[in-house]
Structures are given as structure tokens and as C-alpha cells.
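Researcher: I'm preparing a figure for a lab meeting and need a structural model of a single chain. I don't have an experimental structure, so a prediction will have to do for now. The sequence is pasted below. Please return the structure as C-alpha cells so I can convert it later.
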Amino acid sequence: MKKQGNQRTENPFRFTDSNKRYYTYDYYLRKTFGGKCAKIPLDGGFTCPNIDGRRGVGGCIYCSGRGSGDFAQSATLGIAEQYRLTRETLSSKWSTERCIPYFQAHTNTYAPVERLKSLYEEALRQEGAVGLNIATRADCLGEDVCAYLAELAERTVLTVELGLQTAHDDTARRINRGHTFAEFQEGFLRLRQASPRIGICVHLIFGLPDEDRQKMMETVDRVAELHPDQVKLHLLHVLRGTPLAEDYLAGRYQPMEKGEYVETVVDAIERLPEDIVIARLTGDGMAEDLLAPEWSRKKVSVINEIDKLLYARNSWQGKKASLRG
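Model: Understood. Here is the structure written out cell by cell.
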């Protein structure tokens, strides 16, 4: 293990200007937009194919009633009003005029293209909007949707966020994901082929039921082979009112411990190519709805432990990417 020293001056990682040994989202924003940006979560009133019956009902077992869009304003408000209210709320936290509207709740390409155009174009017209992020599923990317996204990417910095969570179909069935890894790959490649200008971010969750470290790293390796532009790493939170909460309260699910999660994230960072932006290292759940794990409430502490372990290992993003196989 490496002795403590100056983590910034001794940093061997090239996509950084700080002590961070991975390609941070903050660094990406500054290189792309010239400074920090505030992401403005929006709720377009969408649903999901594993909620409305097309692929299943009930949604993913961990998902909140708002489809991970808990930090957005109500979908009963128009896009402009949601944007304005959230921007005002965030103004005390972020001293920046640059904003990225973020369609986050549920599956945000699961609608006719004309409806998508109406919502996305309105978001881009808002004051300070410099880009657009759209969260969706890879099985909701038809040819017409991809064609429109390709056109949109010619006019703005567009990132499409694809929830994968796991590359293992047995786990996907367990969590009621509603699609296979093969279907994810098909949608990913369709989007990639539509335009190289579309940034693709893949979401992964660590700590899913019945997955050990080996299975999690197998998912990381499969995603590394696809080489998205960004990856978001999430801890599985147990939220009140979800099927996962029922399993947890009945003793059928045990969340990850802090040290285990930190080691898993560092293992993943080492395996991901150095030019992939690590857009998130751990997720957020609504504080009042969080049942477990309690340690996840101290998000800064988790990130600090990840930084410390990378330094202690004398490691960095991509160090082991070429050693797999």
C-alpha cells in the first residue's frame, strides 16, 4: 500500500487537474462548457414499459413511485415552470448561469416523437440551458427516436442516459428490469450508429440481490467493451414503499457495507477505460424514504474513501483496463 503524500502532485492520471484519479464529471463540464453547470431535473410525465404492462408491471423493485425523479418538480407543472422553480432553488448552491435540463423521471423516450420534440425543445429554450440530458431505457430507442436525437445532437450537447444496472439476465429478472442484456446492446448500438455526437451514459447499480463482486465486475467489463462516453455508478438504496423494502424488512436482502462498496467502486474504476467520464460514484435517495444503508447518507465521506483507496493502491482509472481478458 502506498504511503500518504501529496495526492495532487503525485497523481499519474491524465484526465484531471486535481487529486482525483478518475475522469470526474466536474472536469468534463469545465472542459466542455468552460465551468460548472447546474443540472435541472425535469418530469415530463412519462411512464415505463415495465410499469404500464408492455414489458411488465410494478417497475424495478428498487424504484420510487416517481421513477427516480424524486428531485424534480411535479409533472403537473409545465416544463418552463419546473425549470424556473428548480433553478431558483439551486441558485444558492450553484453560482453559475449554465444549466443542463435533465429529463430524469421514468423513461423519457417512451412516447411518440412529436411529444418528445415538444418537451425537449421547450427545455432547450429556457434561460441558461447549454445542453440536454435524457434518461431512458435502451429498449425504448426506435429508429424514429434515434433519428430525432441525432438531429438534436447537431444543435446542442446531448447526453442520453441508459439504465442498464446489470449485464446478468438472471438479476434483471429478479429486479423486474424488463429487458435482456442483448436488447440493451441492440439499443446502445442503434443510438451510437445514429450519431457519434450523441453522448451515451450507462447506469450501473452495485449491491443488487444475489450479485457478488465477480458478477458486478463482469457487468463493468461488458460495459467497458461497449465504451460509452460516461458511466454512472450507483449504490442500491432501499426506499420505503418498494418491493425491495419488503425484502429488506423480511430479512431477504442485505445491503452492501461501506467498505465493500468503496472497494467495488475502485475495482470498477480500475477496469474502465481512462477516457470514460465517471459521472457519478454513488446515488441519492430521498432522505425521508431511505431505509438502508444508513452510511450512504454521508455521500462526501464515501467519495473521500474512494479517493483514499485509489491513492493507497497507487491506482487510477483504466490502470487494469488492458489487463482483462
